[in-house]
Design goal:
single chain, about 200 residues, alpha+beta, 4-stranded antiparallel beta sheet, 4 helices, about 20% helix
Length: about 200
């Protein structure tokens, strides 16, 4: 399984409670078609896609800036990152640290310079399905393993794996007949030798 990332332009909300700076927002939404991803397919996250991750006590999702593990904002195991799901999607609530990064994120979010979210995940083969639709191939994700939620400068919709693109491409157009055989290519050297033999032959 390869790590994939998706992003949303859903607004990130900055607030202060009890003297603590916090960010809240949706990292993913359910039952909503994504933009067209590389490979020409769209994607839908089913409701409950993250239930297994959130119920697993060994899961320790982190909140990052731009998916950079050196820029951590919060963590489940420390209680500084809280994740939940509702009818709309996967919601996060992170307490910003009193670090240079935390203060920068606070200022940039409050000004509206940072306003998008993203999440990193993997999917097992048995937890995804594909179908052809009038809008092109669709990928449906029933269950996903969540690794991080991130505040991002630009949503990361285009980041997907080659394997996913290949599977989606298989559903893009039905195969109706065998392709015509491609003629063998003759190298220039072999062609030159053939011409030389032809020129030497007797008429």
């Amino acid at each position: 399984m390869e790590l994939e990332r998706r992003g949303l332009t859903e607004p990130v909300e900055y607030r202060e409670e009890d003297g603590k700076a916090r960010l809240t927002g949706y990292a993913a939404v359910f039952e909503s078609r994504s933009v067209v991803l590389p490979g020409g397919f769209r994607e839908v996250l089913r409701r409950g896609a993250f239930d297994e991750t959130l119920a697993n006590p060994e899961t320790d999702v982190v909140a990052l800036f731009n998916h950079d593990s050196n820029m951590i904002l919060g963590r489940q195991s420390s209680g500084t990152l809280r994740l939940s799901t509702d009818e709309r999607g996967l919601r996060y609530d992170v307490d910003l640290p009193d670090t240079q990064l935390g203060r920068d994120i606070k200022a940039l979010t409050a000004r509206g310079d940072l306003k998008s979210s993203s999440f990193a995940f993997t999917v097992r083969g048995e937890d995804e399905s594909y179908e052809r639709t009038d809008e092109g191939p669709m990928r449906y994700i029933k269950r996903a393993q969540l690794f991080d939620v991130s505040i991002v400068l630009n949503p990361a919709y285009p980041e997907t794996t080659a394997a996913v693109r290949q599977r989606a491409a298989e559903f893009a157009e039905p195969v109706e007949h065998e392709a015509e055989p491609v003629p063998a290519r003759v190298s220039p050297l072999a062609r030159a030798a053939h011409v030389a033999r032809w020129l030497r032959r007797e008429f």
